[in-house]
Amino acid sequence: xxxxxxxxxxxxxxxxxxxxxxxxxxxxxxxxxxxxxxxxxxxxxxxxxxxxxxxxxxxxxxxxxxxxxxxxxxxxxxxxxxxxxxxxxxxxxxxxxxxxxxxxxxxxxxxxxxxxxxxxxxxxxxxxx
Length: 129
Prior knowledge:
- By secondary structure, this protein is of the alpha+beta class.
- It contains 2 helices and 6 strands, in the order αβββαβββ.
């Protein structure tokens, strides 16, 4: 099995920091970050989905969750666009869930989940659904 999480996180971090140098892009270690803006990224689910027609190549369904934490709704929209452009535009992952969660009048959270399928032996994307 190939771990593509590090590659995706590295690319996402690069595109976000290019536009927002003071942002943090991390794998979550606590429930709510202590500084903003912060983008958390992690592999939320991994399951063997199917095999190819000749049963030679296991295919896995993989789900990544990205949480955007900011103190500004305007900034939240900007981050959403950058994240979506990277996850769909670069990795061709399907957005399967997104929602805004208002934590307080000064803290905003936006959650996005992306799904794709990969060949387990090589990590090659085989498409989303």
